[in-house]
Design a protein that fits this description.
Elements: E1 6-13, E2 19-24, E3 27-33, E4 48-53, E5 63-70, E6 73-76, H1 81-91, E7 99-108, E8 111-119, E9 122-131, E10 133-135, E11 138-141, H2 147-161, E12 165-172, E13 179-182, H3 188-199, E14 203-211, E15 216-221, H4 229-233, H5 235-245, H6 257-267, H7 272-285, H8 289-294, H9 297-304, H10 310-327, H11 335-339, H12 346-357, H13 366-376, H14 385-398, H15 404-417, H16 437-440, E16 457-467, E17 472-476, E18 487-488, E19 491-493, H17 498-507, E20 512-524, E21 528-539, E22 550-553, H18 555-561, H19 569-574
Bound molecules: iron/sulfur cluster (SF4).
């Protein structure tokens, strides 16, 4: 759309909605304002404006005010332009493939809509809204309350029920904005009606425009935040904060895909400080994917001893072998390929994609869920997979393409060190404090909502430290199930008395010289709790046992060679075994 006979001017005042006083050509002229909205932040005294000289000699005012400069930005404020622009744009073949009819000003029900279109075999109603209200790249509509706009949304929703396709098309009359959102400050009712219309099948589009004093054209789509605009606002403050405050962690240096992967798998359920020595040791021993693929199982489990969840490292090895076979040993570089690897879910795939390759993919863990729920004031249950999926979808929309890694890591870091759990976030240090709903509404103690996990099953066990004067007995656990393939001290179900232990010894061919009770211990797995009692059983010679599967070794040898999970930590201590790296673990 083009304008003719354009002259610049300086805005002085606006006596009423229809006219303004503008200095142009050395004189103050009365000009027609082609926008009856408030436009308060645009028409400020001294603003540079652009006027179109009218071709109609009978008009009282010979000028129309059609554009204004706001800082670096040129904003078209001709409220008749959006309808014309959308019509031109559709006629140029955009949005629909086969447009057969287009008619402005169409009456449907009790409303008059801006466009009626027939295309692709469909009847289409379209309402067009011009948007000029902008703050820091965020654009909003309406500028002032508009009951008519609410009615339009309700009628469009009805039209969908009656077989029409329906659209609301927001024409952002400027370029370079971040996102569009309904203006809940001036008219919450419109925001509600728009959301309900969208939920009812009305399509909501927003496009920005290329604007010059002489021309305006529809350009590119703009993200639409029907709710939770805070998600669209957080990128800049979050990325800035992360770059300044991030902790210096070994896996953040030179983050190639393999290193990110190893660190992320280790960090699941284990504290950052505890992971550091494991991470260094693992990479020293297995510096490449191929080394991991070729590692012997016992070596692998020993490297993981103390971290728990041993299936994770087993899956890592399977994935490493997949990488060798399917990808020639080179870590895959697309999100979909990374997701196809054994044991890699959406979180890890997102983290590798973003941290190693800079791809705009979300990495949503418990920290991120907590931050997002608080930021948006949502009471959704973060234990539900559907909630996690929704958060992933919402973040996918807002990750900045040029700072995906810092954005994702910033969210995780913020959850880890500022937006901490248990109702005590450090909001005063938070870069998102000004846009956070939980903070505004005093809900940080209630959010996130987390339904209780199922109660764990309790198993009573008796752990037996069989020893002669040199060696101890250990055995390998079965290859499947809990703590699969790891080593343990012999143990039996139930809490045995001293007499029952003696009887059991005889059953397996051992003659106890002395039986000494040890302290009780408890270990919590994800779904089971072990409540353990223990006995040290001194026998004359371990080799005499008829029990199959026992291995006999010196305590130093056990410490070096066999991976004993930390469930047995108390008894490992009693046995005088020294392990490589202490740590928390679980399964
Ligand atoms: S303001 Fe407080 S509750 Fe909100 S995101 Fe920041 S730390 Fe969390």
């Amino acid at each position: 759309m083009k304008y003719e006979h354009i002259e610049p001017g300086i805005f002085h005042s606006r006596p009423n909605r229809f006219i303004a006083k503008v200095e142009t050509g050395g004189r103050e002229e009365t000009v027609h304002v082609k926008n009856t909205g408030r436009c308060r932040e645009l028409l400020v005294p001294g603003a540079k404006v652009y006027l179109e000289r009218s071709g109609n000699p009978d008009r009282k005012t010979k000028w129309d005010l059609i554009a204004v400069e706001k800082g670096e930005r040129m904003i078209n404020m001709d409220s008749q332009a959006p309808n014309v622009l959308v019509k031109e744009w559709l006629e140029a073949g955009n949005l629909f493939c086969d447009l057969t009819r287009i008619r402005p000003e169409y009456t449907y029900g009790n409303s008059r809509f801006d466009l009626y279109v027939e295309a692709d075999g469909q009847k289409i109603l379209m309402e067009v809204k011009g948007v000029t209200l902008e703050e820091d790249g965020r654009v909003r509509f309406p500028d002032a309350p508009s009951d008519r706009a609410v009615k339009h949304m309700e009628e469009l929703k009805e039209a969908v029920k009656n077989g029409y396709q329906a659209y609301v098309f927001f024409v952002i009359q400027m370029k370079g904005v971040r996102f569009f959102t309904p203006n809940t400050d001036t008219h919450p009712e419109f925001a509600r009606a728009l959301k309900e219309a969208a939920d009812g099948g009305v399509q909501v589009l927003a496009y920005d425009c290329l604007v010059s004093p002489e021309e305006v054209h529809i350009a590119d789509p703009v993200p639409v935040a029907l709710e939770n605009p805070a998600l669209y606002e957080m990128a800049d403050p979050l990325v800035g904060w992360y770059r300044e405050h991030k902790r210096d962690l070994p896996w953040r240096k030179d983050p190639d895909a393999y290193r990110v992967w190893v660190s992320e798998i280790m960090l699941q359920q284990t504290r950052v400080e505890a992971v550091k020595p494991y991470y260094e040791r693992f990479l020293k021993k297995l510096p490449t994917v191929r080394d991991l693929a070729d590692a012997e199982e016992d070596v692998l489990l020993k490297l993981w001893e103390g971290l728990g969840y041993y299936n994770r490292v087993r899956n890592m090895q399977k994935a490493a072998r997949q990488i060798v076979v399917d990808f020639g040993g080179k870590f895959p570089e697309t999100y979909e390929e990374i997701c196809s690897l054994k044991g890699i879910g959406s979180y890890t795939a997102g983290a590798i994609s973003a941290f190693a390759y800079g791809l705009p993919r979300p990495a949503v863990d418990g920290n991120v869920l907590r931050v997002v729920m608080r930021l948006t004031g949502s009471h959704a249950d973060i234990m539900k997979q559907s909630v996690k999926r929704r958060v992933e979808e919402a973040l996918q929309e807002v990750i900045p393409k040029d700072a995906a890694s810092d954005f994702d890591q910033g969210l995780i870091e913020l959850g880890a060190i500022v937006c901490v759990p248990n109702g005590s976030p450090r909001c005063e240090e938070c870069p998102l404090a000004s846009i956070c709903e939980a903070r505004k509404q005093g809900l940080t103690g209630e959010i996130p909502v987390k339904s209780k996990a199922k109660a764990r099953r309790i198993e009573n066990r008796t752990v037996l430290l069989f020893k002669d004067h040199k060696e101890l007995a250990v055995r390998k656990r079965p290859g499947r199930g809990l703590l699969a393939g790891l080593y343990e001290f012999p143990n039996v179900e139930g809490h045995l008395t001293m007499d029952e232990v003696t009887a059991y010894c005889k059953e397996i061919g051992l003659a106890p010289v002395r039986v000494r009770p040890l302290e009780k211990a408890k270990h919590i797995f994800s779904h089971i709790e072990w409540h353990m009692t223990g006995y040290e059983v001194l026998v004359d010679e371990l080799e005499k046992t008829n029990e199959k599967g026992f291995l006999f070794a010196l305590p130093e040898e056990i410490g070096k060679k066999y991976s004993i999970p930390s469930a047995f930590e108390v008894y490992v201590r009693h046995a005088g075994i020294e392990k490589g790296i202490g740590g928390q673990e679980n399964v």
